[in-house]
Amino acid sequence: MSPGPEPRSRASRALEWIFAALLLGASSAILIAAAVSRADTHYAWIRPAGDPARGDVTAAQVRERLHEVLDPELGIDVVDLGLVYEIAEPREGKVALVMTLTVPGCPFAKQLVEDVRRALFAHPGVKEVSLTVTLDPPWSWERVAPEVRKRMIEHGAGAEERS
């Protein structure tokens, strides 16, 4: 008996539904609500009409922009901190991504979400952004980039990781 396909993460499934909704239009918003848990929060933004998108954008460029978004408490960007779970390859300027927070009820959640929005729309090729913030799976120290984790431990952050 051959094993079945690899199970997909909840974040992966949410990203697929978000991307489908972006392609199908706003009438598909009900699909998003059915696809993500109540713990997930979905955000969708469109570039203002007075500032039309120009050019293309790639997932690598999205990731580069997200390196500019710093966790307000730790001063580490959301990519190296391991908060970004997935970035779909953008199509026609439509960006979809899934990220998490370091803890449920993070007091900086609103600021992080707004910083992500600003950073992505700073790229001229971004027309629309769809962001899902999920807590499943929960963030852990293992998600932090190894070189950043080492610096954090040297400076006293993440001490619980050593015990």
UniProtKB/TrEMBL annotation:
Record keywords: Membrane, Transmembrane, Transmembrane helix
Pfam families xrefs: FeS_assembly_P
Annotated Gene3D superfamilies: Fe-S cluster assembly (FSCA)
Transmembrane segments: 17-37
MIP18 family-like domain sequence ranges: 60-130
Alphabetical list of InterPro entries matching this protein: Fe-S_Maturation_MIP18 (IPR052339), FSCA_dom_sf (IPR034904), MIP18-like (IPR002744)
Protein name as catalogued: MIP18 family-like domain-containing protein
Organism encoding this protein: Anaeromyxobacter dehalogenans (strain ATCC BAA-258 / DSM 21875 / 2CP-1)
